[in-house]
Design brief:
The structure is a single chain. This protein has 104 residues and is an alpha+beta fold. The chain has one domain: 3-Layer(aba) Sandwich (Glutaredoxin). The chain is 41% helix and 20% strand. The chain has five helices and four strands; from the N terminus they run E-H-H-E-H-E-E-H-H. A four-stranded mixed sheet has the order 2-1-3-4. A hairpin with a 5-residue loop joins strand 3 (63-67) and strand 4.
Length: 104
């Protein structure tokens, strides 16, 4: 499972959404993840979910959390780290592939 924390006012979140739908990325994501988009609003929505997964948004949004089949956290990426991974569809796809490789 891929948890995608963000908000519609966040331009980077909107850009990441576009990358997720890129023709190079979407097939891989569809084959390996069930994506759950979690709206944090203006830092006033779904905060219980944010806390449940260790506050992945503490460095900002967007933030991704990858879960294994037992809801254990495999990877967290947010803030500047996520920014580097979202420079292009290819770099985002590379990050996803590394997360899949880390699955038990």
């Amino acid at each position: 499972m891929l948890l995608d924390f963000g908000a519609n006012w966040c331009q980077t979140c909107v850009s990441v959404g576009s990358l997720l739908n890129d023709g190079a990325v979407r097939p891989f994501v569809d084959d390996h993840f069930h994506v759950v988009t979690i709206d944090v609003g203006s830092w006033d929505k779904n905060l219980d979910v944010v806390r449940k997964y260790g506050n992945p948004t503490y460095r900002g949004i967007p933030a991704f959390v990858v879960l294994d089949s037992n809801a254990g956290v495999i990877a967290v990426m947010s803030g500047r780290d996520l920014g580097r991974a979202t420079d292009s569809a290819e770099t985002l796809l590379s990050a996803f592939k590394s997360w899949v490789a880390e699955r038990p």
